[in-house]
Amino acid sequence: DLRHLEQEILAGLKKIGDRQVPLDSVSCDSWGVDYVFLPNDGSPARDPLCYRDVRNERAYPKVLQKVGRDRIFQRTGLQFMPFNTLFQAAADGFECRPEMPKAKSILLIADYVNYFLGGRPAAEVSLASTTQFYDPRKREWARDLLDEVGFPTRLLPEIVPSGARLGKISPTIANSTGIQSTCEVVASCSHDTAAAVAATPAQGKDWAYLSSGTWSLLGVERPEPMLTPDCLRLALTNEVGYDHTIRLLKNIAGLWLVQECRRDFASQGRDMDYATLTRLAGEAKPLATLLDPFLSIWNAPGKMTSRIADYAKTTGQGSDLFGKLGDGVPGGFGIPHSPDG
Questions:
Q1: Predicted confidence (pLDDT) at residue 301 exceeds the cutoff of 90
Q2: What is the domain count for the chain?
Q3: In terms of residue numbers, what domain contains 240?
Q4: What is the rounded distance in angstroms from the CA atom of residue 2 to the CA atom of residue 112?
Q5: Strands 134-135 and 140-141
Q6: Same domain for 15 and 156?
Q7: 192 is catalytic
Q8: Where among 207, 226, 252 does a domain terminate?
């Protein structure tokens, strides 16, 4: 909901303006992969489709068959997930999305917010690296991949490094919020995980990180991408961090499972906040059921409690996972963060 995001951003800036807090710059980070079409005529951009949209599942096997898994990985180094921007773009190309011929550019979410604030259209490199059509060795778009799936490469914006200055805040926003007109719009590490890793107070080479949220991102920082057959086989991904370091990592289903369970309960008339879920989980027998977060069966929204219960049953971990805790609370499942459990 772009209009809602825009209004909330403006509301936050106005509170800063009302307090006369001096700002040298503003910036935005966001999740990766999703993108907005910028209309040619300057009209408001339409809401983007979420990366969990079913269209990606239709495009995914077509792209792998047409382009080839090995070729895509050698160009981009990314873990194969159906919602990566490459497959979203392919779906839009295959299905002739109506916004496409009327657009002048695409922008990923944080890049769009920077543009909305007054910056020029640009793709910050850490965010661009989540698309699966960015080449981390050549440090440029892998345009040939998009050509093969029928997505127009004329829509790709320039790639800029973290810290690039994109322009001044727009006069309209400055006037409506009270923010100084000298405030600059800067491309931060615009991918949220890249920003988190950049802020990690670690030194040397003997450390790893686990960034936990909707996804759990487990990885290390490297100077160069690793594009070996083992990386492809193990479904590791090479994303760009600050100063074009490489975050070699694994995407793992995280608190999305709990979020979806909560939504499932609410649809059944059992609306519980996270504090209640946390309390009930603490009262449950710990790790009574273990889930494999590397499985793609958790990616889609909807009926998560049923899917978890079915998984527990088929793996011999019992069929009454939810029945004993508040008539439906996932209190006793754990999510290992190692492929070996």
A1: no
A2: 3
A3: 193-252
A4: 10
A5: antiparallel
A6: yes
A7: yes
A8: 252
